[in-house]
Each structure stands twice: as structure tokens, then as C-alpha cells.
Amino acid sequence: MGIIVVGLSHKTAPIEVREKLNFPENTLPDALRKLMTYEGIRESLIVSTCNRVEIYACVTDSATGIDRIKQFISDYHGLSREALEQSLYVYPDAQGVRHTFRVASSLDSMVLGEAQILGQLKDAFEISLKTKTTSTILNKLIKKAISVAKRVRTETRLAEGAVSISTAAVELAKKIFGDLDGKNVMLLGAGEMAELAAQHLLGNGVKNILVANRTFERAEELAKEFKGDAIRFEHFPDSLVMVDILICATGAPNFVVNRDMVIRALKERRNKPIFMIDISNPRNIDPEVDKIDNVYLYDIDDLQSKVDVNTGGRAKEAEKAEELIMLEVETYLQWERALDAVPTIVDLREKVEDFRKRELDKAMGSLSDITDDQKRVVEAMSQAIVNKLLHAPLVVLKQAASTPGEGDSTIAIARRLFNLDKELKRPGREKTTEQEETPIPPENQGRESTCR
Amino acid sequence: MNLIFFQAAVAMYVIAAAGYIAYIFKPERTWTANASLWATSIGYLLHVAYFLFRWTESGRIPVTNFFEAANFLGMGIVLVFLIMEFRFRIAALGSFMLPLVLVLMAPALILSGDIKELNPVLKSGWLGVHTSFAVLGDAAFAFAFIVSIMYLIQERQLKAKHLGAIFHRLPSLDIMDTLGYKALTFGWPLFTLGMITGSIWANSAWGTYWSWDPKETWSLITWVIYLALLHLRTIGWRGRKMAFLSILGFVFVLVSFFIVSRIEVGKHSF
């Protein structure tokens, strides 16, 4: 039982594959509901952006869970399992937690430190909450991931780096063109960083944005957002003539912009300089283009290395973030392990409470002429004895449960010592979702879940 | 006595040059640029004062020997620089312009400032007109030359993706390209006028408009180079290639000024 992340990203699959597995936002609730009908899936969340498609789930059994999730993806998108297998990655348990935190903190992004992924994760979470496909475990995981991302943001200078990459692009543009007023920008493809860069350019006087995308609808969407014009992807080479700044992020596996194209455009625009920013990975603009006069081609590494000088090394910042995440994964796992003790604690409390009530009733029955005040004193005493007696075992249980390797044996001992398994017939750890709604002890409110 | 003004002017230019160079390498200190602009302005006023003193003393415009010519050219370039600086506020220009001014004025510093008698044939109103046009044309070319060097440095940095401190100080490629071209569109007509007035003056002095003396020939080559530059620009040449051509053009100007003028055979020799 535990957390599973199954998915693919820009690191494992080319755009063509990512596009096939995409879950458009408006279909997400439906997809989530379908996913929940698969065996052993207890909680689920789907993140689908242009750079990644990932399913976060809490499953009863890891192996089945992984298999069922893959089956779901294959069923939903009508793709064969074999085709999926090579591009999908799987992160179970602690790895899954770590991956979630890394994604939220944008350590897994194309551009380290960009903020958009956190927003996308929040949106995905929102949809899952509305569709009611998450519960204790994923709620905790995602909330924790969000807070970890915020910590990374404030305690490292990673985010500064992503912003400064856009700023660097703007600065470079200004050193080439001087005034950006009236300059034409073309956005080829889309993506977190490309949009961020476009936004920065717009904020610096650029008025006209052309958007070309393989899917024309997406181009129109973006064009609307930037108050620009959408053009058909096939037509972009012809429009290159009027483009001063080209931001390229198509995610294609090969060069989209080649030398001949640029030479032709330059000739037509009488050698007015073109500033090209290639954010794609792998590169979409042939590096040969950089050798042409009046063309300034910068890829993400060039921009990043420029930023490095200012921020004192992004690699170092990323390392800091990784360390921070390691610590956070540990605290999360502690919390998750502590959940093991919850059923035992509940059983123990109920059993003792049962004794107390029975004994109290007996005592009250034999004390006939007793005032209300006296009754209250006796009742309070019984309560106090129970609490004091239970305090130490409960603390030990919780501590043991959150320490790896100690949990199970301590819980077993507790159950034997207090004879919890024979007398009280409670459906221990194998509860169903409905039963999760039953009252739980106050200190564990909203936390208990049998699915971990 | 008047030489004090000249020396003071040069001293101010030295201070300004040092300030502007410091400005390039210490980007956080902007006051150096402001101070340098003040120094240049004061230096220029002293320079003009010296020029006028010398004019009254000799009774003719002081542009007749190498000392005076170098002095006059320096003055012209500083004037162009000041106009540009007050207009565009590109302090980095000073970091390149003032050292150039000092280099060009070096002969004036070394040579004697004695006033010599002028060949009576040359005593004419055309003397001032011809030399003024020629010097202003040369100054505009000098400006284009400096801007081209700056352009190439900036272009190199952008291409190599190695952006040093100087990158932040230098203006955009676009403005340097535009300024370089603008300077040519002013410089070339001025230079042309200088040639025409010189030719008219030659006719009044020697009865011939053109006599293929080394300076004339060399100037004609320079004139053709800049004309070609302007033409190439209109057919879409720009950026690096234009900068290289502009530098080449100014090399011809320098050769003409420092070497051809020294050849003892021509009418321009002094």
C-alpha cells in the first residue's frame, strides 16, 4: 500500500508521445472518475501539462496499482501497453514522495525554478478535490509538496534564476534592439519558459506577438492571452521576415528552424537583426544559424550560464533544494508511518473507554444517595485514571510507528498486551472508503486513513 | 602664455579619458561618467579659447601647419562627441572618443606651437571654409569609426555569449549601427564640401581645380570608400560588415592626415 507516481515528462518522452497522453483540463474529472473504478486505486490526481503527464495515486498494493494505472492510461488513450512502457516512469512509495516534491519545486522542470508547475499542480489538486478523488494521503502529500515548494522558493535562489532567465532574455534583446517598442515577437511552440519570456518581453514594450503551434487551437488560445495573432505552424517560415525576436519551444525532436530559412528571412528583411531564443530540449534551432551575421541565437544553457554569474551557480542552489527535499520526504514518511499506529490507538482508546463506562455504571449503581457534584467527581476521576494510564503507551506507539523498523513489532506488542484482537471486533486496517467517514479520535481528525 | 590654455584643455581631456575608462570597468560608479562629461566640456571651452587667442595672435585661422591641423581636428571631434553625448547620453562613447582625441592631438603636443609665416598665395577666406568642412567631415568619420569599434566589441560579446562588464556599459547594437550610419550621412556631405571648397580655393590660388597632388588623390579614394559605404547601406548591408568598412574608411582618413600630409611634395604638406 502506498503512493505511486506513474507518468512521463519532457525528460523521458518526445512531444509527440506527450501530446498523445495529454488529458485536457475539461476532461480531467471524467478521467479521474474512470481511474477510480480500477482495482486498488484509492486516491488519484492527474497532472497534465505540455511538459508532463503524471498520475499520482494512493493504491492498496503497489504492483497491482502500477499495473492498473498503466492499464488505465492505455485504455483511456487507446494505446497499446507496449507503446507506453518505454516512455513511462514509475516512482513507488518514498521515491514517489520525493518525485512529487521535486516536481512541485520545479527541480524536474525544463527550467529549474520556474513557478508555473506549482500553479499547475495546485490546479490539478483543485480538480481532484472537487471530483473527490483524493483523501487523507494525497491531500497531505500535495499540501506538503506545496509547502516544500514554497520553502525551496524562499530558502534557495532557484526561483530567482528562472525569473532572471527571462530578464536576461529581455536584457539581451535590449542590447540588440535598444528600444523594444514596436518589435515583433514570434512564439514558436509553447511552454512554461517560452510564455514567461514572452510575458517579460510584453512587459518591456513589445507590442506584437505572433503565435505558431502545432495545434492551431492552442496557438489561438495563447494569442488571445498575449493579445497577438495566431498563425498556422506550417506558415511560420514565411512570417519569419517580420520577426525580430523568435522564442522557440516546440518540443520537436529535430531542428524546426534551419539555416536556409533564416538566411532567406534575413535577406528579405535586409539584414535587420534577429534575436532567437531556443528554449527547447532537444534544440529546435540549428546551431549553425548562430554563425549567420546579424543573428543572435541563445539557448537555455546560454541564458542560464549568464544568470549563473549573477546568482552564484544554479547547480549549487539546486543541490540545496535537493537536500531540503530529502529532509521533507523524511518528515512526510514519518507522518505516513505514524498512520500505522492509528487503528491500534483507536482500538485501545475504545476498549479502555468501554471498561471505564461499564465500571463507572456499576459503581454508580451501588452508590444510591449521591449528589450530582459527587457523581461528577467520581466520573472525572475515572477519566483521569484512564488518561494517565494511556498516556505513556500512546506516546510510545506513535513514536515507534514513525521510526522505521520499530513500528510493526511495537504495535503487535501493544495489541497483545491490551488483548485488542480477541475481544473487540473492529475491522483493523482493512477499512473501506465509507468507513473512513466514521468518527476518529480528535487528535487524528482528518488524518486517519487505512490507505497509506 | 596662451599655450597654458592648450595645456589646460589637454589636461582636462586626460582627466576625462581616465574617468570614462574607469567608468567602463567600474560599472557601479556612474559619477565618473558625469565628472568626465564636465571635464570634457571645460576642456573644450579652454580649447576654443586657445584657438581664438591663437587666431587673433596670428591674424588668420590657425589651421595652417601640422600642429594647428591636429589641434583643429581634435577640437572638431570633441565638438561632435559633446553634441552626441548631450543628445544621446551614452557615456561609453567617451571611453573611446577621448582616448582617440588624445591620440590624434599627440602631434600637437609634441610639435612646437610656434606661429610661422604663411605662404601669401594661401591667404584667403577659403582657407577657413575648406579646412572647417574637411575637419568636420573627418570628425564625423572619427565618430563613425568609434561607434563601429564599439559595435564590433558588443557584437563579439553577444555572439560569443560571453558578457563582461563592458557589455552592460555599451549601448545596443541597433543604436550604434544607426549612429554610425547617421554620422556617415553627415560626414560624407561635409567631406564632399571640403573637397569642393578646396578645389575652388586651389583654382583661385594656382589656377587649377585639381592637380592630383597626393592629398587630393588620397582624399578622393577616401571619398569613394565612404560613398560605397552609403550605397551598400541602402542595399541592405548593416551591422558587422558596415562596421568593418567604416573602420577601413577611417584608416584612410588617418593615413591621409598623418602620412600623406607629411609628404613633402604636395600643396598640403606642412
Helix and strand content put the structural class of chain A at alpha/beta
Give the helix level of chain B as a range of percent: over 70%
Mean pLDDT of chain B: 87
Radius of gyration of chain A: 29 Å
Report the helical percentage of chain A.
40-55%
The main sheet of chain B comes to: none
**Outline type of chain B:** flat
State which percent range the strand residues of chain A make up.
Answer: 5-15%
Series of secondary-structure elements of chain A, N-terminal to C-terminal: EHHEEHHEHHHHEHEHEHEHEEHHHHHH
Would you identify the regions of chain B where 5 or more consecutive residues have pLDDT less than 50?
none
The mean pLDDT of chain A is 83
- Count every beta strand of chain A, where a strand is a DSSP E run of 2 or more residues: 10
Tally of DSSP helical segments of chain B: 9
Largest interface: A-B, 21 and 18 residues
Query: Rg of chain B to the nearest angstrom?
Result: 19 Å
What does this structure look like?
The complex is a heterodimer of chains A (452) and B (270). With 452 residues, chain A is α/β, with parallel strands linked by helices. Helices cover 55% and strands 13% of the residues of chain A. Chain A contains 18 helices and 10 strands. In chain A, the strands form 2 sheets. A 6-stranded parallel sheet of chain A has the order 7-6-5-8-9-10. A 4-stranded antiparallel sheet of chain A has the order 2-3-1-4. In chain A, a hairpin with a 3-residue loop joins strand 2 (41-48) and strand 3. The longest helix of chain A is centred in the C-terminal third of the chain and has 31 residues, at 372-402. Chain A is elongated and about 110 Å long. The longest helix of chain B is centred in the middle third of the chain and has 35 residues, at 126-160. Chain B has helices spanning 3-25, 31-58, 66-88, 92-110, 126-160, 165-169, 173-206, 214-234, 240-259. Helix content of chain B is 77%, strand content 0%. Chain A binds chain B through residues 172, 174-179, 267, 270-273, 290, 293-294, 296, 298, 302, 305-306, 309, and chain B through 154, 158-159, 161, 163, 167, 170-175, 236-241.
